[in-house]
Fold this sequence. Notes:
Layout: E1 5-8, H1 12-21, E2 25-28, H2 34-39, E3 47-50, E4 60-62, E5 68-71, H3 76-81, H4 83-88, H5 90-97, H6 102-107, H7 110-115, H8 121-124, H9 167-173, E6 177-182, E7 185-190, E8 213-219, E9 228-233, E10 244-253, E11 256-265, E12 272-273, H10 275-280, H11 289-297, H12 311-328
Parallel strand pairs: 1-3, 2-3
Antiparallel strand pairs: 4-5, 5-8, 6-7, 6-8, 9-10, 10-11, 11-12
Helix pairs in contact: 5-9, 11-12
This protein binds flavin-adenine dinucleotide (FAD) and iron/sulfur cluster.
Amino acid sequence: xxxxxxxxxxxxxxxxxxxxxxxxxxxxxxxxxxxxxxxxxxxxxxxxxxxxxxxxxxxxxxxxxxxxxxxxxxxxxxxxxxxxxxxxxxxxxxxxxxxxxxxxxxxxxxxxxxxxxxxxxxxxxxxxxxxxxxxxxxxxxxxxxxxxxxxxxxxxxxxxxxxxxxxxxxxxxxxxxxxxxxxxxxxxxxxxxxxxxxxxxxxxxxxxxxxxxxxxxxxxxxxxxxxxxxxxxxxxxxxxxxxxxxxxxxxxxxxxxxxxxxxxxxxxxxxxxxxxxxxxxxxxxxxxxxxxxxxxxxxxxxxxxxxxxxxxxxxxxxxxxxxxxxxxxxx
Length: 331
Ligand SMILES: Cc1cc2nc3c(=O)[nH]c(=O)nc-3n(C[C@H](O)[C@H](O)[C@H](O)COP(=O)(O)OP(=O)(O)OC[C@H]3O[C@@H](n4cnc5c(N)ncnc54)[C@H](O)[C@@H]3O)c2cc1C
Ligand code: SF4
């Protein structure tokens, strides 16, 4: 195991200053991803700063307008069990409960969850195979290698990895925002702009910089929240990452869709919003399966499957359809 020093953060401002000044320092929350990366030598921080001691960052608050604020240190299991989360945004509770295991969810924080790194085996493996995310400039072994679990949207020749977080898919569908505190103060980042596409710099997963500390995640109120559902397809029924997943949230007039929000997991470097389909679904009847299918298909014209994952194009459309129908049944 890579040796490191461990210290506890006393207050957010000092933690942020320390992180900004020291490129070999990493925040640690539950440690369920970071310690694994250190064991695999995919992350080698010399200093860990335990942020669990920071005050007021584990709170889950139901906002008076119907929204929700989730502290970055709130544990996945606490968020999934929270009555207001379950009632207002079932898609969030479901995405969390389909993730990892009970023990991991008790330990893992929401901030750590949305920061977790890809499960691409070439990135996680200790072998010295080329991986631009692990060693920039070395190449991408998955591009022409084993890429069944990789992206069908938005990838580049430099990286075809997918984002592994389930709850990020739900949060992207709900237009959540991430509150981040950095050296220059606090800012709010829309969830849809939080993650990056790989481009030429796949080593950067998101838009955060040195010093940035995720403080909370805010979910806006919306008629679609209650009628929402998360569907995850995986190779085994528990303790497994998504092959493909979908988060759907709808508002309806009778059986007609007034507005729909849809995001896919397991298909891109970030949760993939189906914006064209969301437009095409307006006024469609939930009972008209053919209309729903052709509306969903509008978001797949730019799908670019790799050698081993063409099946995801059809699978993702079916998963999105089923998630949409299940969300609609709650309306
Ligand atoms: C066997 C296994 C199976 C899993 N299955 C799933 C699954 O099916 N679905 C799923 O979604 N996840 C899954 N996970 C991932 C799990 O959800 C994450 O490991 C966990 O959420 C990370 O949270 P943490 O608090 O432990 O983060 P840590 O490991 O402590 O940190 C992870 C990263 O986030 C950074 N970080 C943490 N908090 C902050 C903050 N507030 N601000 C800025 N940076 C921060 C750290 O510096 C680090 O880089 C699985 C993990 C394991 C080990
Ligand atoms: S897909 Fe990305 S993470 Fe996987 S080997 Fe290629 S560069 Fe590395």
